[in-house]
Amino acid sequence: MTAPNNAGGVQHRGLITISIMLGTIMQVLDTTIANVALPNMTGDLGASQDTINWVLTSYIVAAAIMTPVTGWLSDRFGRRELFLTSIVGFTVASMACGLSWSLESMVGFRVLQGLFGAAIVPLSQTFLLDINPPERHGSAMAMWGAGIMVGPIIGPTLGGWLTEAFNWRWVFFINLPVGILAFLGSAIYLPRAAKRLRGFDFFGFAMLSLGVGALQLMLDRGAEVDWFSAAEIWIELGLSITGFWIFAIHLLTGRDTFIDPAIFKDRNFVTGLIFIFVVGIILLASLALLPPMLSRLFNHSTILTGLVMAPRGVGTMISMILVGRLVRLVDARLLVVTGLALTAWSLHDMTTFSPQMDDHLIILSGVIQGLGLGLVFVPLSTVAFATLDPRFRTDAASLFSLVRNIGSSIGISIVTVLLTQNIQVNHEELSAAINPFNPTLQTLSPAAASGDITALARVDQLVNAQAMMISYINDFKLMMIVTLSAIPLALFLRKPKLAPAAAGAPAAAHME
C-alpha cells in the first residue's frame, strides 16, 4: 500500500495534525496519569496494595501485545477506519474505567483500553509521514515527538491534580472531550487510503504475543514477587524467551509472515530501533526515579513534584521546536550525538544530588535532559524512516513504538531493582560506622553515642536518607553510562538528503 499524497491530505494538513495528535496525547497520557491515583482506587475497588497494580499491568500488557499487529489491521480494514475505531474504543473504555465498581471490572476495562489504544501512536506517526513531503518530515516528527515525550512527563502531575481536586475517576473521564474532538477531526479530514489484503500469520502473531506479553508481565510483576525468588518470574522468562526464539526462526524461514523480514534490511531503521530502545530506557526510567525521590527525600507534595519536573517538559518542547527546523540544515547524526551528549551531561549533574540541596539543580538538570532527549528523538524518528519503503511504514511505526515501550519497561525494572538493593547495601555499610566508639559520632551526637533511643532514631533517619541518595546517584550514573555507550551507534546511520524533484513529482529521499 503506497503512502497517500492526495490534495485533500495536503490541504487539511494542519487540522489532520491537530486531530491525530489529540488522540496520541490522550493515549500516551494514560501510560502514567493513573499511577498517582492508585492509592485512592484501592479502597473504592476493594483491592489490596498488592493487587491494585494490576490496573497498570493489564493496560501495559494488552497494549504491548496488540501493537505489532497494527500494520496488518490497517492494511486489512484501512488506516483511517482503524484509527477512528481505536479512538472510539479507547474513549469508551476510558469512561468504563471511570465507572468501575470492582478491581475485576477495572482490570477488564483497562485491558480493552490497552487493546484499542495500541494502534493510535504508530498510526499517528504513519499519518504524519504520509501527509508531509520528505522535506517536512523533520517538522512533522517534532510535533509527534513532543506529544510522545511530554505526555508521560505531565501525566503524573495532571493525574495528581485531578485526583485531589475531584476524585480518581476523573483521571479517566478527562479522555471523553479529548476523544470526541480527536474523532470528529479525524473523521472529517483524514484521507482514505487503499486497502491491501494479505493473509494473517496467526502462528507468528501468537509467538510474538507470547514473547512480548510474558516479558512485560515479568518486568511489571518482578518487584512485587521479589524477582527470581518466585517461580512466576521464571515461568514468564521461559515463555518470553521461547516466544521470541520461535518467532525469530519463523520470521527467517516462514512465508507470508505478518511482519515482512525485508523491513530489517534497512540499516537506518534497525539502528533507529536500537536508539529508540535506549531513549525509552532513559526517558521513563528517570521519570520513574524522580517523583519518589522528591517525595521521600525532599518531602514534596504531588503538585510540587509536578512543578519541579515541569521545566523538563519545557526543555523538551523548546528542543522539539528548534530541531524541527535544524533537521533540514544540520546533519541528523550530529543532532543525535549532541542530544545524547546533553543527556549524559544532565545525568552527570544528577550524580551530584544531595538531600541538603534545593530544587535549583533538579530543575536545571531536567531542562538540559529535556533538550537532549528532544535533539535525539526528532532526528532519530526522521532518519529511521527516511530510507524505508513507504509500504512498510505502518509495520515499522508499530515496531518503533513497541521497542520504545519495551525499553521503557526494562529501564524502569532495572533502576527500581538496583535502587532497592543498593539502599539495603548502603544502609548496612553506613550503619557499620555508627557505634559508641566512633569519635565523630561522640562529637556530633553524644546522646546517640551513649545509646539514647531518640537520638539513635534521628541518626538512623539520616543514614536512611544518605543510603537512599547514594542509591539514586548510582542509578543516574548507570543511565549516564548507557547514554554514552549509545553515541557510537550514530556512525551506523546514513545521512538522508533530498534529490531534486522532477517536475510535478514530490521530492524523493536518497542516501549518501
TrEMBL record:
Residues 16-498 form the Major facilitator superfamily (MFS) profile domain. The chain crosses the membrane at residues 51-70, 82-101, 107-129, 141-162, 168-190, 202-219, 231-252, 273-291, 303-323, 330-348, 360-387, 399-419, 476-493. One of its GO terms (molecular function) is transmembrane transporter activity. Keywords: Cell membrane, Membrane, Transmembrane, Transmembrane helix, Transport. GO terms for cellular component: plasma membrane. It is a multi-pass membrane protein. CDD domains: MFS_LmrB_MDR_like. InterPro entries: EmrB-like, MFS, MFS_dom, MFS_trans_sf, Sugar_transporter_CS. It is found in: Cell membrane. Belongs to the major facilitator superfamily. EmrB family. PANTHER family: MAJOR FACILITATOR SUPERFAMILY MULTIDRUG TRANSPORTER MFSC (PTHR42718). This is DHA2 family efflux MFS transporter permease subunit. It comes from Pseudaminobacter soli. The lineage of its organism: Bacteria, Pseudomonadati, Pseudomonadota, Alphaproteobacteria, Hyphomicrobiales.
